[in-house]
């Protein structure tokens, strides 16, 4: 018995199997696209922890909870979505160029999250930062 005969025996056509499979991965089914920025962001980083030591140096950055958290060359804390708005590749922070850079196709974004060079077509989601003592809160 081949595949079509097997499906026919079950009363199912090949087309309905394909349709069911595709519906399961559709964004309209409630799933989140890989390029969607994280929502409801609200977390705190302890700057005394060794895992967060990169944020003690101007130009340092780390990623956490789908967010790039960086300390600019001027010493300000900034936070944007980690994934590129083009095809969701993880971004890097380049303090010397004051930008976020995508190694995949070369898109660049300013430190304020705005798109500065394609092929991405939209800006990054930016999160707020608040430093209290040695605790850095990142939130939407
Ligand atoms: S995935 Fe970033 S530019 Fe294409």
TrEMBL record:
Annotated SUPFAM superfamilies: ISP domain
Molecular function (Gene Ontology), one example: 2 iron, 2 sulfur cluster binding
Keyword Transport: no
Segments forming domain Rieske: 67-138
Highest taxon of source: Bacteria
PROSITE patterns: RIESKE
Keywords: 2Fe-2S, Iron, Iron-sulfur, Metal-binding
Name of the protein described by the UniProt record: Cytochrome b6-f complex iron-sulfur subunit
Organism per entry: Chitinophaga polysaccharea
């Amino acid at each position: 018995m081949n595949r079509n005969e097997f499906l026919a025996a079950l009363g199912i056509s090949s087309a309905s199997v394909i349709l069911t499979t595709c519906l399961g991965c559709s964004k309209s089914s409630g799933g989140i696209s890989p390029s969607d920025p994280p929502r409801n962001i609200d977390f705190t980083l302890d700057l005394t922890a060794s895992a967060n030591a990169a944020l003690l140096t101007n130009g340092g950055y780390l990623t956490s909870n789908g967010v790039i958290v960086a300390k600019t060359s001027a010493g300000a804390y900034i936070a944007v979505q980690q994934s590129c708005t083009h095809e969701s590749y993880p971004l890097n922070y380049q303090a010397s160029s004051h930008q976020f850079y995508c190694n995949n196709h070369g898109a660049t974004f300013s430190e304020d999250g705005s798109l500065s060079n394609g092929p991405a077509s939209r800006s990054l989601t930016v999160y707020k930062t608040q430093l209290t003592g040695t605790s850095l809160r990142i939130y939407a």
